[in-house]
Amino acid sequence: MRIVFVLPDLPLSGAATRTVHIAEHLVCEGHHVVVVTFLRTIDNSLEERLRQSDIDVIRLTSLRGLRRLRDWLTDSTHTVIHAAMPTAGLLGLFLARISRCPIVYSYTNCLHTQRPLESRSLWDHVKSRLEEFLAKKCEALHAVSNSVAAQLLREYPYAAYRVHAIPYRVTRPASGEAIHDLQVLEGLVHAWPKLLYVGRLLAHKRVDDVIRAVAAIRDKWPKVRLVVLGSGSERHQLARLVAELGVMDSVVFTGESNSPARLFDWADLLVHPSLYEGYPRVFAEAIAAGTPVVSIDSPYARELTKGGASVFLARPMDSASLAATIVEALQNVGSTNAHNGYGADASICGLCELYAGLPIRADRARASK
Fewer beta carbons within 10 Å, N or C terminal of the chain? Predict the structure, then answer.
């Protein structure tokens, strides 16, 4: 089977790293995989990782790339196009129509429908229209978590028979050089407690609540350290907040990392208070690594908490509750073992079954004879 993954770009983001992870597993299962991207924001580490796994990366920044992709699509009897993100979905739908291939569209979250109407941006409204259009046109709708699937069923009840909930699972990441990236940062190796945030620095991620929580527990634990891995539009506002609260020596911004999972062995807790998520990869990786997680009471957190993982839930948008929950977690959790319910095999098998069950269009089947 041939699978074409379509992404707008390859940055260090959840959708991109999730796609890379799935693509690598599919190649190990003997499938031929190509990743198509059409913007120039390409992270070299992810592209190099794909090529090392014998996965071609086609950039549609020229007619040459489009012709190469067209030839590749028409040279197979069973090719599936799998797109994520609305703009990639539109390109994937176009490619599916010209090549007569079935298309799967992944819904990674439903942020544009979860936000209050008055706080939705123009892009939220555009994205809502695009994803509604894709829900009507794509052969299969892949939900990366059960909570996302439930949201899809509420938003697009007419597409219920095409919604497939295949939760994205992760395996225990390799821990080699687990704290190498942090040893160069003075004072962090011997700090306690060591808190970690990994993700985009956006308003709905509520990183400001984490910083306020650190300020609140400094009296109890003066050596507390918070490492923030990520970048985003809130970076400067968060830096100002750190200065205002006087916690410059307790909070470290390190920018993005292509291997944040290696830091779980270093951290005592992962703090993840995001208001809206589909299936947060870093949350699942922390659970798989046996690192306790402090999050908020939300559908995605409740889904990932099942099975006895060490997850502690605070009230949303409440830094005092988050601080109290961090204290509770540190006082009540000891050394933990990796959670065994987050293997990738079930996810890959589920996707393979979904691909295999998609119909080969009659005119394409006749052309292959």
Answer: C
- How many residues appear in the chain? 369
Extract long-range pairs of 71-76: CB within 8 Å, 24+ residues apart: 72/2, 72/4, 72/34, 73/4, 73/98, 73/99, 73/101, 74/99, 76/2
What is the Cα–Cα distance from 114 to 163, expressed in whole angstroms? 19
pTM reported for the whole predicted model: 0.72
For domain 2-169+345-368, which architecture applies? 3-Layer(aba) Sandwich (3.40)
CB 93 within 8 A of CB 23: no
Report the pLDDT averaged over residues 200-229: 92
- Given a contact cutoff of 8 angstroms between Cβ atoms, the answer to whether 198 and 260 are in contact is yes
Q: Is 40 exposed, middle or buried (0-12, 13-18, 19+ CB in 10 A)?
A: exposed
Burial class (CB in 10 A: 0-12, 13-18, 19+), 190: exposed
Cα–Cα distances (Å) from 3 to 56, 77, 101, 354, 369, in that order, read 11, 12, 10, 12, 21
* CATH class of residue range 180-332: alpha beta
Same fold, 2-169+345-368 and 180-332: yes
pLDDT in tens, 90-135: 989 988 888 888 999 998 766 545 555 556 677 777 888 898 999 9
